[in-house]
Amino acid sequence: MAKRLRMLMRMRNLTRTGQVGDGREEALAAYVLAHAAPGDVDDAIRVIDEYAYRQATLINVGDEKGLLLDAAVRRAEPRLLLELGTYCGYGALRMARAMPPEARLRSIEFSDANASVARRIWDHAGLGDRVSVLHGTLGDGGRTIGRLVAEHGFGPGRLDFVFVDHIAPAYLPDLRRILDQGWLHPGSIVLADNMKVPGAPHYRAYLREREGTEWRTREHHAHVEYQSWVKDLVLESEYLPAASGGAGPVPA
């Protein structure tokens, strides 16, 4: 019973604040600065994984699913990337390592505390202006969308890659906001984590309904971050230029 209550409290904290509630995110920043070589993205990633296995589990994409993220970014060869859900900056580190040198990644995070942790880790890893975080959400009445357009070069057909890894109820609304802005182009890739745990059924159903007409989706089977017994699913969806037929998501 006590363990269940702790889990419920953590889920409430995550929903309300974006953090687990026991200080692990702030402790991670200190751990990275103490143990990772300055200016070394690879070492920052290694140290975050080490912390998650040895100190406290984190809710980033993790090392196993991170390989799927790496591969998708390399396939896309993006110039402009958007991340929904910065958390502590781990996904952005992996994308920065995989994306072309001239590419730029903008990450959206609703928790100011998480954004601060991510900035410190990125500064230590030497990412410079290749990656930046905006405190807000795409659903905040246009403020964050306006900043992306005015300050970061977002516009029709400009966005090459999107990584969706924030709160599940916002997956589909935020994808629709991106589509409404016209930011995607034929061949843009949207990668979405946590399709089974905690799950985003409306997002998955939306893509299934449009398979072969608006999207071509691959389903990558994996596990929840930093363990090997709970299964998870990552969707990799390519935005299509026109109808081309299709019967459903293609298993990886």
Automatic annotation (TrEMBL):
GO BP field: methylation
Keyword Methyltransferase recorded: yes
GO molecular function: methyltransferase activity
Domain of life, source organism: Bacteria
Signal peptide: none
Keywords: Methyltransferase, S-adenosyl-L-methionine, Transferase
Keyword Transferase appears in the UniProt entry: yes
Protein's recorded name: SAM-dependent methyltransferase
Organism listed in the record: Streptomyces varsoviensis
Native organism taxonomy: Bacteria, Bacillati, Actinomycetota, Actinomycetes, Kitasatosporales
